[in-house]
Amino acid sequence: MTKKTKGKEGQLSRREFLRDAGLVVGGATAVAMPLLAACDSPTTATTTATATTTVTVTTAPITTVTTIPTTTVTVTAPPTVDPPATASAISTIELTVNGLKRLVQIEPHQTLADMLRDTLGLTGTKVGCDRGACGACTVLVNGKPVLACMMLAIEAGETSVTTIEGLAVKGELSPLQQAVYDHTGYQCGFCTPGLIMEATALLAEKPQPTMEEMKAAFGGHICRCGAYYSFMESVTLAGGK
To answer: Which residues contact 186 (CB under 8 A, 6 or more apart)?
Structure first.
């Protein structure tokens, strides 16, 4: 006779637990067997291969040939002109310079100022602008003031030319030169020879010139030092003698 042991109400006994567990394991095994069988069956794989063809294309280089037309240029050289002989280019003029007769050889392009300074050595005549604008090169030609840089030497033939060196008589300064020296009618002295030659011509015509007449006469002379008034005072003093 089997003795049954009952547990507490609502609780499983060990026996009942083991029984139920066996049922669960058996059922799971029964279900899993077909799945395992299916997994053990062979699997067929289908592979599709695609063939690739490589085509190599070789392109030959293209050579372009450009033809440039040839132009023939004919250059005609101008005819050769021989320069004139030196002897024929030089002229000889006769003139009076500071009271002395002179025969001077000159070139066609030479100015009166160049001839006086370079050929005759009379460097008292100054060349400032060399274009007739400053008055520094003024000399007397036949008693009239002339810009020596604007007159060709060949034009002075048969004339009488007086420079600053020709105003002194026997080593004595002219009254105008002495007055300019005594009353400091100059500053740097570069324009002074031209102003003295202009004033000499003015005093020869008007021994006692007015201030306005002196301004008109000296208007073409540039004194960069600004010694105009002291110079005109000297001219006034020289005119009274």
So the answer is: 180, 192, 225, 227, 230, 231
Q: Residue 156 contacts by C-beta under 8 Å, 6 or more apart in sequence?
A: 93, 95, 112, 115, 141
Distance, CA of 155 to CA of 95 (rounded, Å): 10
pLDDT greater at residue 241 or residue 93: 93
- Chain-centroid distance of CA 25 in Å reads 111
- CB of 135 within 8 A of CB of 220? yes
| pLDDT tens-digit readout, 59-110 | 555 555 556 666 666 667 666 655 554 555 899 999 999 999 999 999 999 9
Q: What HEC string does the chain produce? A: CCCCCCCCCCCCCHHHHHHHHHHHHHHHHHHHHHHHHHHHCCCCCCCCCCCCCCCCCCCCCCCCCCCCCCCCCCCCCCCCCCCCCHHHHCEEEEEEECCEEEEEEECCCCEHHHHHHHHCCCCCCCCCCCCCCCCCCEEEECCEEEEHHHCEHHHHCCCEEECHHHCCECCECCHHHHHHHHCCCCCCCCCHHHHHHHHHHHHHHCCCCCHHHHHHHCCCCCCCCCCHHHHHHHHHHHHCC
Instruction: List, in sequence order, every residue forming a beta bridge with 104; answer none if it has no partner.
Output: 93
